[in-house]
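Cross-posted from the bioinformatics board.
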Amino acid sequence: MPITQTEVEKIAELANLELTPEEKDSFSLQLAAIIDYIDQLNEVDTSQTKAWQQRSAGDAIISAVTRNDDAAPSLGAERALENAPDPDEGHFRVPRVIGG
Amino acid sequence: MTISLTVDEIHRLYEKGDATPSEIVRAALDRIEESQSSLNAYLTVSRESALKRAETLDSGIRDAVRVLPLAGIPVAIKDNMCTEGVRTTCGSRILGNYIPPYTATAVKQLEAAGAIIVGKTNLDEFAMGSSTENSAYGPVRNPVNTDYVPGGSSGGSAVAVAAGHVPISLGSDTGGSIRQPASYCGIVGLKPTYGRVSRYGLVAFASSLDQIGPFARNVRDAARALSAISGRDVHDSTSAPVSAPDYLAALTGDVKGLRVGVPAECFGEGLDAEVKERVEAGIARLRERGAEVVDVSLPHSRYVVSVYYIIATAEASSNLARFDGVRYGYRTQQARTLSDMYRRTRDEGFGAEVKRRIMLGTFVLSSGYYDAYYEKAQRVRAMLVRDFDSAFEKCDVIATPTAPTPAFKLGEKSDDPLAMYLNDIYTVTINLAGLPGVSVPCGETRAGLPVGLQLIGSHFDEARLLNAACALE
């Protein structure tokens, strides 16, 4: 299946990626080749099969994943902001949201 | 002093008073620093903190080796596992300055067992790759022959063990990222059952496939490391409340009556003739030692790469949405609005392979394509799982090659992503089924490149799996 430039742009928008013109070119070719290959799955009759579901630890264990909602100490704002590119008075500062 | 030693050998030195943790760790650090310019296996070397910790162990080491399975053992950690206060980059520009405020559970467990972290190892960006050429910090080279890749994505951790820096390192395996580099570098690499080891603090790539596991020079050390990192963790709801046996005690080397399944589908087209020869010779050795070799079938094997690259990229596109320049990591300097900032940050922060996979994953999940790709792949995945269920009715472990070829040269496949993906044909399938697998060295090609044999076990049957691997050594 060929992937057009417009489709690449649409996928990039959904993925929040700003691609360069060179990337758009190479991705449309590479994605088309990969999608051509994975289209081999059309050979498999899956009409009688249900989609796979996690059975993380073997079938018996799947029920054991809930826990009590107990309050416990958390990281705290100061530590949580240590890696922030632009922290400001206990918040994450970002460029303006509306417009542009 | 070299430290191309196993844990047992280092512990004997400690017991006899012939070495101290400080001496062993200093030797490891010296070798790491000497090798950096040729191998590029490390992104961070923790010289000061490692020596400091070693010093605290020096005086009590003779007693410590009796109670701590990894007392005074230098280890290296793949740089996608968080280490409090130590930069964790994932091989990406987007996390180039990220200093985690917490440590991954598996790393904590290794330290609790007495291990000393000497460094964080290089990897394909976000563990996406099969050659460790996709790191934002330059490629890693194979110590067996530096013209060749070490495999990936845990190439740095494989090299740390193969080059004799440390006896044990940790990697992560989403589609073969421990087993394939182990195979290319001639060492042991274990991907445990999904849920065996906590993933808390492992930066997520594909959450239904990711698993942390050890590299080691022999099966004994891999078993020792697995015992240390196994178990339920309240911070990871997918970690299993299944108790871990003493994996070291399980290594008798006795494989009499063990049923070894050989799937014909993994020995056909695309398999290098020399690799095939070595792997078959390995299987013959198991038979000589009393194992029973049986034919099994994995009829959907030819679809595994397609299923894997749909599911892994779909999960990755979702997991990597968190890297947006707001809370941590890199942020673009040129954005006027918030959405502008997201897009530019991600474009400048991610490398080509990561973007390619985010694009593919976004595509297979997008409206109009979800059923044809993602849903379809999850159905075929269910069929693959059933193939394994049937096969394990006839056998205890399954033997295949780890990779279809020995290591390839740097640059050989970097322009052809699909060719690179097809290299994962024997490894991705066990991640899709959540099974444990181990790559064990089984000789080398005439050109001197190592070949690995992959053994696959049933869920939580690592004890039997490692014992079979031990019989191959």
